[in-house]
Every structure is written in structure tokens, then in C-alpha cells.
Known about the structure:
By secondary structure, the protein is of the alpha+beta class. Helices cover about 20% and strands about 35% of the residues.
Amino acid sequence: xxxxxxxxxxxxxxxxxxxxxxxxxxxxxxxxxxxxxxxxxxxxxxxxxxxxxxxxxxxxxxxxxxxxxxxxxxxxxxxxxxxxxxxxxxxxxxxxxxxxxxxxxxxxxxxxxxxxxxxxxxxxxxxxxxxxxxxxxxxxxxxxxxxxxxxxxxxxxxxxxxxxxxxxxxxxxxxxxxxxxxxxxxxxxxxxxxxxxxxxxxxxxxxxxxxxxxxxxxxxxxxxxxxxxxxxxxxxxxxxxxxxxxxxxxxxxxxxxxxx
Length: 260
């Protein structure tokens, strides 16, 4: 599922005039904005469809892509579960069956662009399009883990797992309706803030590294990471290693996020 989700990047049908006047489309893949700060992953609007450069996206996410230059055919994913598209043809093949499209892949500036609506359909991956915020949400940051469900923590409208073994190094405090996560070792000196779980209507505008966890009342539940130095003495190896470990642990436990 993780590999297949890489390719179902957008289901975007946008009028040409509106696209010209609005801000660029953002694509969240498995919780991460993959179009932020990059030119190679920016969408192209053509034939009233949103296209993304397939190879750049696939290779960035570790997806297998095979290109037959002679036949101008691109195969995405494993043969048994993947899809095949031909440049200029309005059909794609899945499991030996041809599926009709109303648009076709094309090549521009040595990049292969595909109509992502049909890639999504071909991979059976749900894609959510937020017209107001001009963002496509593909897949989810949440993943299956080996954590014990008995350690699941209930919050208002959602839950997550904080393993008992980690509770001696991660501190969670409530700030209004938000949760703030700290590295326990550094928090004793007024530092150690890892980040905050909060609801934002427009995640794209958040100026710090962010993980999109899912929809919530009023917008999206996100985790925003602290952008400043959160270690009292960066020369202290014990403090820096403690913070790095706790931060990595929080990124893992966020994979257990579940809307309730």
C-alpha cells in the first residue's frame, strides 16, 4: 500500500482561469508536503487536468518506475499490481486490462507527466482534494506499527500510542485544545520542545516543518515541529542525543494517530 500510494498524487480538476489567479497546488503525500520548496514536483495544468512529473515523484518516494524509450511506455510499480501508460495514448493498462482515459500522459522538458486522477484510480488509492486550500491529500502519515494498543492515549477526537517505555523521556502537556510534546531531559531547563499537535485550516501556510495527520473539525490536525534550538547547551552530547532520540520517537508515535 505504501508503494502504491506514492503515485496517486492528485485528483484535481481546475478551471484554467482560476488556476492562473490562485496560489500553486500543494500535494501532501503520506502527511508530508512534497511540493514545498521544489520546482521539479510542481503540477502542470493541461486539458483541465492536473499532472505531476511521475519519475521525480516516484524516485523521491522510492517507487519503482520502468521506462521503455523505444515504445514510450512507462510502467509504475510491480507488474502484478502496477499500471502501464503510453505517452500520447488515452488508455492505461492494469492487470492486462485496458482502461480508458479522456487525457493522455506527455513529455515536457525531459520529464514524463501523468494525469494523476487516472493514476489514483488505477492504483485504487483515495485522494482528497481541498478546493479552497488548493491542496491534494494522498495517503496518510498513519502506518501500522508494532506498538501495544494497550498504550493508546485518548484525546479529544483522536488518539495515539505513547509506549510505556518512552514515557520516561517524552513529556506531553495540554495547551488549550492542543498537545505539546517535550524531551523530558531538556525540558527541565525550559527547553526540549519537540512540537505541537493542533488544528489548522490552512496547513500550507504554516512556516515550520509540519506533518498533516488528518481532517478535523475546523480544518486539519497537524503536528508542527519547533523551529528554534531546543537544547540548552548544543555542545553537551547527552542533551543533544536525548533531544534527537525523543524527536525521532515522536515522529514514530505520530504514525499511530487515529481520528475517533
